[in-house]
Every structure is written in C-alpha cells, then in structure tokens.
Amino acid sequence: MKDQHDHDDNDHVHEHILEGSGGKLLASILITTLTLVAELVGGILTGSLALLSDAAHVFMDIFALALSYGAVRLAQKAPSAYHSFGFRRMKVIAAFVNGTTLLVIAIEIFREAYSRLFTSEHVLAGPMLIIAIIGLAANLLVALVLGGHDHDDLNARSAFLHVLGDALSSVGVIVAGIIILFTGWYWVDTIASVLIGIVILTGAFKILKETVHILNEGAPAGSSAKAVEQGLLKIPGILSAHDIHVWTIEPGYTVLSAHVLLEDQLVSNTRPVLELLKRTLDKEFSINHVTIQFECVNCGQTCVACEGADL
Asked: What's this model's pTM, rounded to 2 decimal places?
C-alpha cells in the first residue's frame, strides 16, 4: 500500500506541474500573438522587410508554444493498456520538433546575413526601433512567464529558447537601429543577426542532443548500467546483478529493469531486499520506476546489459 500511495502522490505532483506549465504556455501564446499582429502591421505600414522577417520568427514562436502546450495536454492523459507510460514522451517529441525549428531559424538567419554582405539595403531605423522595442517588451514578458519552468522540462525549455531567441533578435534590431540611426552603417544589422544566429544555434544543438539521447533510450547522466550495477552490489543480500537497462521516459522520470541474483530463499524473505533496493536506486540515481527479476541461479546472461534479455 505504501508503494501505491507514493506512486499516487508522485502522479498528483506531476499533474500539478503539468497544469502550471500549460497555463504559462497558454498565456505566452496570447502575448506572442499580439506581438505578431503588431509586427505585421508595423512591417506593412513602414515597408520594413526586417520587421516582416522578424514577424515570421514570431509566428514560429507561436507554433513552438502551441506545440508545447499540446504536448503538455497530452502528457496529462492517464496511462492505458496501449500506452502503459501514458503520453509523457510527447513532451520530448515536442522539444525535438522545437529544437529542429530553432536550427532552421538559425540557418535562415545565416543565409540572409550572407546575402546581405553583397548588397547595401536601406533600413528605416526610426520605425524599426519603435516596433523592435514593442517586440522586446512582449518577448521579455513571455520569457518572464516561462522563466520559472522546471529545469528538467525539455519541452518548456525549448519553448523558452524560442522566445529568448526572438528577444535577442529584438535587442539586436534595437542596437543595430540606434547605430544605423546615428552612423548610417547598414552592415551593423548583418553583424547583429549573425551573433543572434549563433546564440540560437547553440541552444538548438543542446535541445536536439538531449532529445535524441532520450528518444534513443539513453541512460541519464550518472545512471549508466555499469554505475547502477556497482550501486546494487553494495546492498546486503545481493550477489550479482545483470541484464540492467536504464532509460528515460522524460527528464525526471527514469525507468530500470534488471536481473538480480540472491541466495536461495523464500520469496517472502526477499521483500526487505527489494525495499532497500528501491530506496537506493531512488536516492542515488533518481530512478522512479523499477522492475526487478530476482534469481537464485544465474539465468546465463552474465553481461550487465544484454540484447534479448526477456525470454
């Protein structure tokens, strides 16, 4: 009963976090939509291609935020016979898509910056400054709303990076606009865009690296099969451990399955070992879901991590 009670408490905490994250994302979508309207109207009225281009980036922000919100709503669905872990992995998939769009945006910025090296485009610095300041204020407000996200929440972090990238873009536009206004150096706009692109590209690679590792069933840092084996061998009563698999459903929710060799004894006597094993895995490796197969004779799979373990 204690295990079930703890599991229910963890689910309630998880649902509370998801509801809070969903509310922040929804508020961010509304604010960002207003920013998109302002930049579209400003770009059309001033004839500024830079503002219209930034409006396209804002539209991608809305897409990223909407995708993240949809993933959060799906993640709240209860597990079923067909989805035993529920839809927790949807947030990781959303983060992967958002990381990919960040990568595309960075590449597009570099492409546009390269093309501008060979042209001398006139920039309307005054109107550009006004709209960019409005955009920056809106982006900072959204960043403030999303800034309290859980560090382990890849989905919220990817959406936050989208907004942060657009805020940096607005800062770059403002700085470039001021310099252009007083000096007429239009090439400053190109330099600012390259710097913004580098920041966005760095964030995209980090998100994609983490999501690909999770989607490929990789073990979280510090929880490799070998490290877990060494931790299990410290528990009294455990002779050996093998066929260990550790993977992450989503950041903060780690799963383990393993074969553990004990001395020959009654099944009822293994309960204290199992309880200590679970506490050790939770405390030392933050492993939330454990499936253990106790053995009194080695099944013959002597390696730590084996293929075709479940017969």
From this structure: 0.70
